[in-house]
Amino acid sequence: MDGRQWRSTIAAARSGDRRALDELVEGWLPLVYNIVGRALNGHADVDDVVQETMLRAVHGLGSLRDPDGFRSWLVAIAMRQIRERARRRTADALPDDTRGAPDFAELTVLRLQLEGQRREVAEAVRWLADEDRELLSLWWLEVAGDLTRRELAAAVGISRQHAAVRVQRMKTRLETARGIVRALDASCPELREVTDGWDGRPDSVWRKRLARHIRGCARCAGGREDAVPAERLLVGIALVPLPVGFTLATMLGGKTAAATTAAAPVGWSAKVLGALAKPAVAVTAGATIAAGGAYVVTQAPDEPPPRAAPPTAASTSRPPSSAPPPSPKPKPKTTPKTTPTQTPTPTRSPKQLYGTVVDTADRAPAATARPATLPRRADGTVALTGAPPTGLTHRGEQVTFTGRGYFRVRWQVLPGQRPGSLAMATWTGLRGKLFHVASGGGRRLDDVQPGSTDGTTWMGGPATGSTVLPAGTQQMWQNEYFWLDGSVTLHQNERGADYNLFAQPSRWDQVTEDVATAPDAGAGIVRYGLVRDTGEDTAPVPQYLTRARPADPASVPQRSRVTPPPR
């Protein structure tokens, strides 16, 4: 991101253009979130510091002398807020206890799907001291191409020469931290004795103890010669995406819109102020600042209406129903006709075909086989509730989908963490209809990884052991796509093999683009995707689906039981 490309947007925002301000904050919020999140290692104060940074930037736009220097100016504001937060906590003697909360290293690994030495670097960050972590939050972006060394030095408030010295020292300590991560992943019996009584929380005392052991242990020091320099590993890594739920409630920390209106800058319209009172939705969205607070401008025009809110043109979908929606102005005793090029309009079927076709174990199509055209179903909005910000990563976690439209479930199987038999995720409490419409992501997880010489797949290999699916279970792809009209809950039932699930709303065009992406071994794309949808009620439903709500979600049978739907 280069501030020079934003000159016209910044100028418009300074003159009071609401759309320009929306675009400006939406474009730069991820950068600030990554700087603050990594500097504070995911502490609960991240939201407050990000909010304060963006508020100060918006209110200070008029003082920005050179729009081309916006990025440097914004980063400097973020670093001042980080240091101010540290001073406040020191003065107030506040503890930094984040026990039980995922830190930014974990969020980085999960959201960017990092593996191998890249994962090692991300996890090593938690072993750095606060000062080093603040500097690394900038250096990480410099290496990734999102900052320059001049901007890094300006943000820290030192010369470029001094910045070079500090970065080199920080990199040395980062390599020590990487060694600790490698050693803890190894099976050194002496290290187990050293860590006896350790609560698993990184701190300076244990960093010194572990580093001292590694220096004197040939087993733990092994692998150092194969370590790729961190700057090479970080090149091309994307920004960590904003978390699901990074919305009005989390940004304002519980403040009400009324509490912020007093600080409203002159010229903001009543429409903007009114938007502050609207509930935010956890979808991919742009965030903006108005009236001294933050709100989310969703990109889904047909979102279901919130409770007790009057219907609007942008939110008129009805509550989930088991019956498909009627066609506009239907004529009595008339059956709509279709042609081979039309998508049939869903109608009540006297044969109750829905749910009679259930996924089964299938063979992979040829890698170069292009997918069929995905039938177009209603492209509405599916809301996700109940999911942790990091996705479904532990047994017992769940997410409920509600609405009408497409959504994606992304699989991450982790044989390197724990191979063995996999307890499949299950679907419960279905109301309405759920179809498994497509599979994508460039690979089935049983595909051999590009460059592998021993047949290692994303399900495992000789070095890690393999993850094994229950007999008769359909092999999952990286991305699985579904279409819903109603509501359903997805459960993570991890027992044995380790796996994670990441869900998000999608659209017809996004599904189509994914499955139509051509194979590219260099990018890890092994094959085209697969379209499963027929556009009718004979389209398959996923395995392990039921309308019931069993006490143990893992007890849902493989053969789905959803037909006939209730009237």
What sequence of helices (H) and strands (E) makes up the elements?
A: HHHHHHHHHHHHHHHHEEEEEEEEEEHE
- The total count of helices amounts to 17
Shape call: globular
Ends: how far apart? 53 Å
The parts where pLDDT drops under 50 for at least 5 residues are 93-103, 109-113, 247-343, 346-350
Query: Radius of gyration, rounded?
Result: 26 Å
Give a count of the beta strands, DSSP E runs of length 2 or more.
11
**Main sheet?**
6 strands, antiparallel
* Mean pLDDT level: 75
What class would the helix/strand composition place it in? Answer: alpha+beta
Question: What does this protein structure show overall?
Answer:
There is one protein chain. The protein is of the alpha+beta class and 567 residues long. It is built from 17 helices and 11 strands. Strands 3, 4, 6, 9, 10 and 11 form a 6-stranded antiparallel sheet that branches. Strands 5-8-7 form a 3-stranded mixed sheet, with no helix packed on it. A hairpin with a 3-residue loop joins strand 7 and strand 8 (465-468). The longest helix is centred in the first third of the chain and has 26 residues, at 160-185. The radius of gyration is 26 Å and the shape is globular. Mean pLDDT is 75; it is low at 93-103, 109-113, 247-343 and 346-350.
